[in-house]
From TrEMBL:
Keywords carried by this UniProt record: Disulfide bond
PANTHER family for this protein: CUBILIN
Keyword Disulfide bond in annotation: yes
Domain of life: Eukaryota
InterPro entries named among the record's database cross-references: CUB_dom, Non-NMDA_GluR_Accessory, Sperma_CUB_dom_sf
UniProt name for this protein: CUB domain-containing protein
Source organism (scientific name): Glossina pallidipes (Tsetse fly)
Length: 352
């Protein structure tokens, strides 16, 4: 596995399979820098702007071009998965200046851009990333994903403590089939995950690609199987699913559905929008949580904790409470009878 730079007259194609040292074969015109990552070669790896800066530095040196801060750099990163795979990008380091320090407004000529294919070899920008904060994870809609970095060769900058300021980005890519969900057992390649109390009594589960945006046009089911005398408790500590109002079809909302059955449960309404922390408890040993998304908008989804709780424990608490109430009432009744008996005895004494 080596890094290949292939030169065809004016066009230059960079196919990068890993971060091994590169060999420069010629000058690279603006806009003809491209790194291609194929899952047939590696399922995971790291890529960053230093690859581009190294190539640009060599290009300037070989052509005896003096370095200029305004020298533009444009480079595309293309990822190609296979079959049921999706591409997930997680950022490890990031600093691309924005309009202001805490602004998310990006300069078009100084940003990382998410591209969507409109036709063969043609893309349009669907999102832009900049600033000093790590962007949330990105997940492809299908087997392909493309990013484009537009910036400049970095100038050495230092903070108030004399520490060098990083410029550019560093990220990890993965070709995966589990939608970024690492807990539970996946059924085939579908977004279906099971959780069984015989294996684990509690844990964490979340929507695909959390805390990044969940993919569009998917249905994800989370099935919880308790023992005979158990029920399931779900505690949501984050919930932001795109939608409004009742989350019905006419609102074009994504939504989460809860059910004590495989089919729809009329006990629960659909849940969408941004909600504070809340709990859901099953009636019996089985519970289903399902996420339905469309192609309109997306959000970060949800994160929740599940636990399998013994029914007997709840029943014992209820019985004990009832017993305590009965004892209290019995004591009151005893005092009442004793008092009445004393009054009756005194009346009898007065009569005789």
């Amino acid at each position: 596995m080596i890094t290949i730079i292939h030169t065809i007259s004016i066009t230059h194609l960079l196919i990068c399979f890993n971060n091994l040292p590169i060999e420069f074969l010629g000058p690279i015109p603006k806009g003809d820098c491209k790194f291609i990552y194929d899952s047939n070669s590696n399922k995971t790896g790291v890529f960053d702007t230093n690859q581009v800066f190294t190539i640009q530095h060599i290009r300037l040196a070989e052509n005896n071009i003096l370095f200029r801060a305004v020298e533009p750099i444009e480079c595309t990163y293309e990822f190609y998965g296979q079959g049921e795979e999706r591409v997930q990008i997680k950022f490890l380091d990031f600093n691309i200046p924005s309009e202001s320090q805490n602004s998310s407004n990006c300069y078009a000529n100084n940003s990382l851009q998410l591209l969507t294919g409109v036709r063969e070899s043609k893309y349009e920008v669907t999102d832009m990333y900049c600033g000093r904060f790590l962007p949330k994870p990105i997940m492809s809609k299908g087997t392909k994903l493309a990013l484009q970095f537009i910036g400049k060769y970095p100038i050495s900058q230092y903070d108030d403590n004399g520490k060098g300021i990083y410029y550019g980005f560093k990220a990890e890519y993965r070709f995966l089939t589990n939608y970024g969900i690492v807990d539970g057992h996946q059924l085939g390649y579908d977004c279906i995950f099971t959780y069984n109390s015989t294996e684990r009594k509690s844990g964490l589960f979340m929507s695909p690609n959390f805390p990044g945006f969940y993919p569009q046009n998917i249905i994800c089911h989370f099935y919880f199987y308790g023992a005979l005398e158990e029920r399931i408790v779900i505690q949501f500590d984050f919930f932001d699913v795109e939608g409004i109002g009742s989350c019905e079809y006419l609102t074009a909302s994504d939504y989460v559905e809860f059910s004590n059955f495989m089919s729809t449960d009329r006990k629960y309404r659909k849940f969408c929008g941004k909600r504070e922390k809340f709990n859901i408890r099953s009636d019996d040993r089985f519970f289903r949580v399902s996420l339905y998304t469309n192609d309109r908008f997306d959000r970060s989804g949800f994160r929740a904790y599940y636990s399998f709780e013994s029914k007997a424990k709840s029943s014992d608490n209820t019985s004990a409470q009832g017993f305590m109430i009965s004892q209290a009432e019995s004591s009151k009744l005893t005092v009442y009878l004793e008092t009445n008996r004393l009054i009756l005895f005194m009346l009898l004494c007065l009569l005789y």
